[in-house]
């Protein structure tokens, strides 16, 4: 789809921003370019829409050398989103979004109708259409920026740190919504970030750059975590990549045991009879209510009468990752993670030891690909790496879990994005 | 001043309303057309100076040198070519506006945020279209600030043109001095000041209407 062939860029002042880059980006996927500041990500991105011309090599789009197309024409077919949105301050939100259709000569009416559609698509209320950019929050402006880039329904989107300038909560929302949108639109997206967590969350494939504009590794996120090509990549993806890999293992396959669970109508005597330090109390649909501590039980009555310790959080066997399961175990008062099924009913429990033993078991398939991850070359699709794998943040709820877990973990020192 | 002559004879004003209105119109034309011409020259020059930075310093120096030439001297130079006409007044006044308008056009274009310019390029604007549809509109508030200064100074400078017989309301100032009669001097002076103030207020209003998007942004816009 987008192909770099031995591409280099030397700026007139002698800086080598990109050095001999060969890379082929798959159609309909999100490719993330990640690396420390100044490693040539923006330069690489801008060579796709000819805002920067390479000094050597060729960039081609769908098999055609992009130099064969006049730059303005080429750009109208490629959406572009930047960090500070870059909205036109003198145009209303609606007219900002209508920019490219107007440039293509659609006529005002049709262009604005299209713009209104796009505002809805990115989750902005129609009442915002008539406002000016200065009247919007940073997050809202960024949404408008995305809508504007989608103006003429371009097959390709270039995004340069689009979510870096907003606060972490808004960023999480924007990321989740971005993934939802991509599920619908299937654009070919090149996404630049300096934040490895964002790269792993969003990317189908990730290209890690090192300073000097050299490609260090091009791989799927899970393989990047499992098999960093060298010390630089290992360092860049961070100390806790072992934990992060768990995001790509489904919780569904984890072995759970019955555990000490009783309905809320059970008597205190029954609870005591289990002879367990903690008893999981469930309602009549087997949905978990909380933990009862054996030591604190009253002499008589039912479990409904006693105060329960909160669950922490549970993990879902449909959709959650092993990372969420492990996190649930660590946060639970009983040290037992509670797994629930699609209906929210308790499927079973497991502690951190049981979970990690099981993960080490499945980890064989996770890390099964024995050959070292290839530098440069066509990345395998996520499916090729095994049916176990799920995208860590496939839906917003999931994304939030991941965020929680990150908060308690250490940060990757090198990314400069210690921004959670 | 003659003994017993009041500063203002209201009767004189009453008798000359029609004539005063006529000269006020002439004064406005002589004062504001040069601003318009100055703008027509400064916008393209400013765009060139913004694009090729190296021509800016010499251009600005030239404009400042022109501004430093006394108006009387300029009038006398142009009288040789254009005679005792309105043009002889308007050409120097036009040249005077350049030292304010050119830097304001350049600053206005520089006030366009970099991401905005880059976004426009990336959306597929050609350079010409980007300048006309994105950069110039965003430069408007800064340019208007320059237009206000130019207009006020141009309106007050017109009176000097009376030295070659083309000074709008300046006519009354010279006449009053010749006749030792203060009423027309004071009337014309007040009218000129009013013209300047009203013009300024109208420019502010026009800018509000033209750039609703710049509200709440203060000097940056
Ligand atoms: N127009 C330019 N002229 C000279 N050097 C540049 C220019 N643009 C970028 N660079 C340099 O090229 C390198 C790569 O820049 P960039 O692609 O912006 O990196 P990144 O986006 O990864 O932070 C940096 O060292 C930067 O200073
Ligand atoms: Mg960059």
UniProtKB/TrEMBL annotation, chain B:
Record's keyword annotation contains Transmembrane helix: yes
Location (main, coarse): membrane
Database matches in PROSITE patterns: ABC_TM1 (PS50928)
Gene Ontology CC: plasma membrane
Keywords, in A-Z order: Membrane, Transmembrane, Transmembrane helix, Transport
Location(s) in or outside the cell: Cell membrane; Membrane
Domain ABC transmembrane type-1: 24-203
Entry's Gene Ontology BP terms: glycine betaine transport; transmembrane transport
InterPro entries assigned to the protein according to its UniProt record, in alphabetical order: ABC_transp_perm/SBD, MetI-like, MetI-like_sf
Membrane topology: Multi-pass membrane protein
Segments passing through the bilayer: 30-49, 61-81, 134-165, 185-206
Superkingdom of origin organism: Bacteria
Family of the protein in this entry: Belongs to the binding-protein-dependent transport system permease family.
Descriptive protein name: ABC transporter permease
Organism: Streptomyces aurantiacus
